[in-house]
Write a structure and sequence with these properties.
It is a single chain. With 339 residues, the chain is mostly helical. 80% of the residues lie in helices and 0% in strands. Helix 1 packs antiparallel against helix 5 and helix 8 packs antiparallel against helix 11. The longest helix is centred in the first third of the chain and has 40 residues.
Length: 339
């Protein structure tokens, strides 16, 4: 099924892959130059090609992000109205025979690697250092096979998607659901104490690390790793709360555990804001960890990394605030509408 929006996302992925390949060729030359040629020749190649790599790969990063956004909007907003039996993206994903989930997994892995490269590239653009350029080139080469698989799997998913075959979705769950047991429903509301506890825990730990990172201990990889692990655990618990607590409260049905419905128009597509805030938290915590590792290896980047770490902390706090406010208001508004 070649829907215009899916086709646009696939075309953006192909463009991104071509740009990534264009950037990986000079990246491979850098690594080969460091291994087989003299140090002076390698440095000459690095100075000559670093800007070319940066331009191509940053453009590829933008293309992949836009392609991923087009893919998610298509399956969450547009296609549920065209696939028989689909109430949300759950039905659309089933219509791809499991390939849709593979596409999202590969896209997530590829963007994670490419974001690591982006952080390293941003640092080496400010202060030229041969070592960090070689590391970023290796990370870039790792992303190429991932995005090749992504494009191939995306094409297979588009070809396997059949809007004429009826699929089971959240509509089947609602049709088969019995009268809700409101005693059980109120009991499940108590599950808020678990995610709320983790949210408070993450906030308190984040405040402690914020005060600690203002000092020289901010360069410790152990501290950064612990901070990143704390934030990633907070994100996992928050994502669980969205599916099993916030979602059922918004839907008015304790049996309705679906993350995709929050992205549908009938719920104001609030899921894009909620999951987007969690993704920002993951990205900023990754930025903190990469910067501390770079500082440990190349002390020349200390001041620059301190600035990025402080900015990342503000980004984490902003994304956590957006998530909590959006989740709270969603529960109040949509639970009132569902009665």
């Amino acid at each position: 099924m070649f829907h215009p929006l899916l086709t646009t996302g696939l075309a953006l992925d192909v463009v991104g892959l071509l740009l990534c390949l264009a950037g990986s060729i000079p990246a491979a030359r850098i690594i080969v130059g460091r291994l087989e040629q003299s140090a002076q020749y390698a440095l000459h190649i690095e100075e000559k090609t670093s800007r070319k790599i940066s331009f191509y790969t940053r453009s590829a990063f933008l293309a992949f992000v836009l392609g991923t956004l087009a893919w998610v909007v298509a399956i969450a907003v547009v296609l549920p109205g065209e696939v028989r039996g689909a109430m949300c993206a759950t039905g659309v994903m089933r219509a791809t025979h499991g390939l849709g989930a593979q596409v999202l997994l590969l896209k997530g892995l590829g963007l994670l690697l490419l974001y690591c490269w982006y952080i390293l590239d941003a640092l080496q653009r400010s202060i030229r250092q041969a070592g960090i350029l070689v590391v970023s080139a290796r990370v870039l080469l790792l992303t190429v096979p991932v995005f090749v698989l992504t494009v191939v799997t995306s094409l297979r998913a588009v070809l396997r998607l059949d809007s004429r075959v009826e699929v089971d979705c959240c509509s089947k769950i609602l049709e088969n659901a019995q009268t809700p047991d409101f005693g059980m429903f109120l009991g499940q509301v108590a599950d808020w104490f678990w995610p709320a506890g983790w949210i408070v825990f993450g906030g308190v730990v984040g405040l402690i690390w914020f005060r600690k990172f203002r000092r020289k201990s901010m360069t410790s990889p152990r501290v950064a790793g612990l901070l990143g692990l704390t934030q990633w655990i907070w994100v996992l618990i928050s994502a669980w709360a969205l599916v099993y607590v916030v979602g059922p409260l918004c839907y008015g049905d304790p049996k309705h555990h679906c993350a995709w419905c929050l992205m549908s128009p009938r719920y104001g597509m609030i899921g894009f804001v909620l999951f987007g805030a969690l993704l920002v938290t993951l990205a900023e915590s990754l930025d903190i960890y990469v910067c501390t590792r770079v500082t440990a290896a190349w002390p020349d980047y200390l001041d620059l990394c301190r600035f990025r770490i402080r900015r990342a902390f503000f980004g984490i706090w902003a994304s956590m605030s957006v998530f909590l406010l959006s989740a709270g208001w969603s529960v109040l508004i949509f639970s009132a509408q569902s009665g």
